[in-house]
């Protein structure tokens, strides 16, 4: 699909993206926009090399693609100056290789903060109240009347929410769980989440002034402290060498037997084989997973676990957010091509 065929700058999007604002932004600035219409969900390096061709000024790509040496050298040879992931995460991008070939890299933070946090909160509640299991039970025609012990879950109020990685998304998630469900907070991050701390303090004072039990917060000195004390724990780190298999067999073993673990960050942050074993051995332990180690696949056994809720990497999937991500990705590429500032560059 081609927009503004006579445009001076050739910009490729490896996927059709929601909305038209991002296309207009580029075509209004003399770009010819080419959108790949391949039926393949995941494009290989070879597929993308063929798209780049002889002349290409910039590419908007996806987190499923392997943006390394091969693609950045080809893009640079084709005269390309800019690449933007349509994602905030950029573990699929070799930023050093991009730097080596003089290609600027962009990502799309901000617009997906609340949307992603909302999914993490939804998974937390769904796991805690066993919503998916209960839905399956109803549809299977098994409900034959109200019972005192039917699908009894946990009350979130007064429990502790644990956040590992209290950046933009982790902090937004924490606020939702604290204000929405009156949970106490324990968080672990290399940086102090000052605004989040202030929020919990102020909200705690508000509750107290209204005669309610105030919420509390604690910045943990170690990740283990969060794992030991959290009732619902949500993971929000970036994926790099230091966070690969951050949650492993040993760390799972120190979590509460009835804890809930939520992952909307990146699959390899959790050792999924160890997780499946842990779910088998601890039927009251529950997980809500948006991401998987070998997407689009799940490790053997995970799909059979009643104590796991699994969804296909949809944390940022709201219409507003996806259109925003497309727009920021276009702005990133356009910025570099036209010499405006790149809207968001993980290098900076
Ligand atoms: C991201 O942006 O990194 C998400 O995984 C997809 O929105």
TrEMBL record:
Catalytic activity: (R)-glycerate + NAD(+) = 3-hydroxypyruvate + NADH + H(+)
Pathway membership: Photosynthesis; photorespiration; 3-phospho-D-glycerate from glycine: step 3/4
Family under the similarity heading: Belongs to the D-isomer specific 2-hydroxyacid dehydrogenase family.
Domain D-isomer specific 2-hydroxyacid dehydrogenase NAD-binding: 123-315
Biological process annotations from GO: oxidative photosynthetic carbon pathway
Gene Ontology CC annotation, any one: peroxisome
GO MF term set: glyoxylate reductase (NADPH) activity; hydroxypyruvate reductase (NADH) activity; NAD binding
Keyword presence, Repeat: no
Primary location: other
Domain (D-isomer specific 2-hydroxyacid dehydrogenase catalytic): residue spans on this chain: 22-341
Keyword terms of this UniProt record: Glycolate pathway, NAD, Oxidoreductase, Peroxisome
Record-linked Pfam families: 2-Hacid_dh, 2-Hacid_dh_C
Location(s) in or outside the cell: Peroxisome
UniProt protein name: glycerate dehydrogenase
InterPro entries given in the database record: D-isomer_2-hydroxyacid_DH, D-isomer_2_OHA_DH_cat_dom, D-isomer_DH_CS1, D-isomer_DH_NAD-bd, NAD(P)-bd_dom_sf
EC number(s) per entry: 1.1.1.29
